[in-house]
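[Automated response] Your request has been received and processed.

Submitted sequence:
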Amino acid sequence: MPPIEEQVILITGATDGIGRITAERLARKGASVLVHGRNLERCQSTVRHIRESTKNEKLKSYVADFSSLSEVRGMAEKVAKDHAKLHVLINNAGVGPPNPVDKNALSQDGYEICFAVNYLAPFLLTHLLMPLLKRSVPSRIVNVSSAAQEPIDFDLIPERSEGPWEAYGQSKLALIMFTFDIAEELKNEKITANCLHPGSLLDTKMVREGFGTPLGSAESGAEVEVFVATDPALEGRTGKYFDCTHEARAHGQAYDMKVRKRLRELGQRVTGIKT
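Generated structure:
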């Protein structure tokens, strides 16, 4: 990887929680940081805050609601237009389990909301930004998953799930499967793809609203994201799942090639991506 001062790094879901802290830490290291959020005002205020706190002027914001695949496409077009290179893509944006009363909450495109935001959006965005990543090798894809993984029920997805926690866990396992697939696809391209669990019940809005008192700090989760995105020790290492900063084993279904193929074909069909 080039010196971090020369790197362009895109972080999705960077206006709050772990993503925002990660963006600030990378900006403090001197990287050009692209901040994504779904609200224009929050994106602008995040960029202002990071500029003031780090004295780094190399920041730009992008607005897209990841429950809409068309907005994901629009954002990818803008990023590609604005930048000749992209050294690191951190797919951090995500939503938590839907309210149990509305367990089958849908995206703007009619898909179960967790599956849409936590899997389909990063699947699409990563493929659309692949030309930038290939022009920037060696480059990295970092997918933020979770230890809360549930086996995928193809009889229900992508439109619904058995319940909110099943929806969340399936979407996070799907993201891990995508990571393993894309790592294999890119193994000769000098682009690594790894995924991570940033820590359990960290101090984020999702945890506070869903569980009450957090068990860990958002800062510790940001440390994990920065580690996987930038640590020289991970140069060339790909297709790994990290539990915090330690390589670990994901749910067994993630290693089932038939299941991964079925999921990949589903993602391709829904997003229109051909690989």
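Summary generated for your ticket: The radius of gyration is 17 Å. The chain has a mean pLDDT of 92.
If you did not submit this request, please reply to this message.
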